């Protein structure tokens, strides 16, 4: 009596895989962690957060300024938007982008080493 094989093979153009074959897990050895850079990034991020907080506080405090920024952005007057934001007195000038739904402020240290971190604030206005 002839028995049919009960094994089914999965075919791939380059390789044939047996469905019951299990490969052992290979464990990678990781180097010992050093949190110094991470801690430095966190400290630098706090400075950026202070600038973001200052910018947001001034937007909250002045409806007239908020309206000016929104109107300039709506008219695609990027230089005007940048001047208005720069007038708020933050130490770090954010990169500004906007669209019909809102505005984004990206704070980073630009070309100042270390290039460790950035803080992004997205605000909806519609």
Indicate the low-confidence ranges by residue numbers: none
User: Which oligomeric state applies?
Assistant: single chain
Class from helix and strand fractions? alpha+beta
How helical, in percent, are the residues? Answer: 25-40%
- How many extended strands? 5
Distance between the termini: 77 Å
**Using only CA atoms, what is the Rg?**
27 Å
> Quick one: biggest sheet?
3 strands, antiparallel
InterPro entries: YuzC
Pfam families: YuzC
Q: How would you characterize the overall build of this protein?
A:
This protein is α+β, with helices and mostly antiparallel strands and 126 residues long. It has one domain (36-124). Helices cover 37% and strands 18% of the residues. It is built from three helices and five strands; from the N terminus they run E-E-H-H-H-E-E-E. The strands form two sheets. The chain has a three-stranded antiparallel β-sheet, with helices on one face. The chain has a two-stranded antiparallel sheet with strand order 1-2. Helix 2 runs antiparallel to helix 3 (78-86). It is elongated, with a radius of gyration of 27 Å. The mean pLDDT is 83.
Q: Key features?
A:
alpha+beta; 3-stranded antiparallel beta sheet; 3 helices
């Amino acid at each position: 009596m002839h028995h049919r094989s009960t094994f089914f093979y999965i075919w791939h153009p380059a390789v044939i895989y047996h469905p019951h074959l299990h490969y052992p897990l290979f464990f990678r050895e990781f180097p010992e962690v050093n949190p110094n850079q991470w801690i430095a990034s966190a400290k630098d991020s706090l400075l950026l957060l202070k600038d973001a907080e200052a910018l947001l506080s001034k937007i909250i405090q002045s409806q007239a300024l908020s309206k000016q920024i929104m109107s300039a952005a709506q008219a695609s007057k990027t230089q005007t938007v940048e001047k208005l934001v720069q007038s708020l007195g933050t130490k770090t000038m954010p990169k500004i982008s906007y669209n019909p739904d809102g505005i984004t402020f990206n704070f980073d240290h630009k070309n100042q080493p270390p290039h460790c971190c950035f803080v992004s604030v997205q605000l909806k206005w519609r």
